[in-house]
Design a protein that fits this description.
about 25% strand; six-stranded antiparallel sheet; single chain; Rossmann fold; about 300 residues; eight-stranded parallel sheet; alpha/beta
């Protein structure tokens, strides 16, 4: 029911509305259990005729338990009456909307002739990003790297890519996606070719980073300036200057950056989750021959 093809334009609209000030959304709160690497994010927003929140749990140790490392719940209400519209699992929404946002950024910021994709990571987001980015660019060469060589090889075999060391994967790549939970840089700017576009997806937190200072030297685009200045170690630790929010570029209120390297730092926004959840609701209602259709949001 939820397709990346439908999510990409929905995420573009949500990001334009966010940057234009049509969304009420504080920066998420993050709390952690004592003596644990787990984190819970609390992400509320009001977006037009809906409001709600996502609770997302990041549990790195779950991988060893055979469980998803990211688990989430989304609650949606009518913003005019406060009536509950839906409570839904947010794991798949988080997976797909994150990749859809990167696809929107890649469509706008990468070379139209981009043919080589490098993916650093081999988990859920790595897979989703290969699917999503391949919708907006025709990649003839996909390279993957993971800290676990066996997982990298299995991932490469699964998608018809080539597993290789990180440096080899990145050198010459037109588009790079970093999809790790690394605390330290896995991508070096010295590896990036002129004209490369990077989607930096992992490393949420002021002390976490996936990119070194050199990789952050070019034009830095973010989903939210306010969030980046609190949650992005890639931005904060490198001292990089933010060029623009993605929504401003999508709306045309800021010109596309002209730089040797462009980095889109994605942190994930509550409005993306609400817009995705609304899309699910609208698809459900459109398929029903019941009174529920008559209360479809306008």
């Amino acid at each position: 029911m939820l397709r990346i093809e439908d999510l990409i334009p929905a995420m573009e609209r949500a990001l334009i509305d966010f940057s234009a000030g049509r969304v009420v959304q504080p920066v998420r709160s993050i709390i952690s259990p004592p003596r644990s690497s787990a984190r819970m994010g609390i992400m509320p927003a009001v977006y037009g005729d809906i409001m709600g929140a996502k609770l997302v749990n990041v549990q790195p140790d779950n991988a060893a338990r055979g469980l998803p490392t990211h688990l989430a719940l989304i609650v949606i209400f009518r913003s005019d009456t406060g009536e509950t519209l839906a409570v839904m699992d947010g794991r798949l929404i988080t997976e797909l909307r994150t990749a859809a946002v990167s696809a929107a950024a890649t469509k706008l910021l990468s070379s139209p002739d981009a043919a080589t994709l490098a993916v650093l990571g081999s988990g859920v987001q790595a897979r989703a990003h290969v699917r999503a980015l391949s919708l907006v660019r025709k990649f003839t060469d996909i390279r993957v790297w993971s800290r676990n060589p066996e997982r990298a090889q299995a991932f490469a075999s699964e998608i018809g890519a080539t597993a290789m060391p990180a440096e080899d994967a990145v050198r010459g790549a037109d588009v790079v996606a970093t999809c790790t939970d690394s605390h330290q840089p896995v991508l070096r700017g010295a590896w990036l070719k002129p004209g490369a576009m990077v989607n930096a997806v992992g490393a949420v937190g002021a002390t976490r980073r996936e990119l070194d200072d050199d990789a952050m030297r070019g034009a830095v685009v973010v989903d939210s300036r306010e969030a980046a200045m609190q949650e992005s170690g890639d931005v904060l630790l490198s001292g990089a200057q933010i060029y623009s929010e993605l929504g401003e570029l999508l709306a045309g209120s800021r010109p596309r950056p002209q730089a040797d390297v462009t980095v889109f730092k994605s942190l994930g926004l509550a409005v993306e989750d609400l817009a995705s959840a609304k899309l699910v609701l609208e698809k459900i209602w459109s398929e029903q021959d019941s009174a529920a259709t008559s209360v479809q949001l306008r």
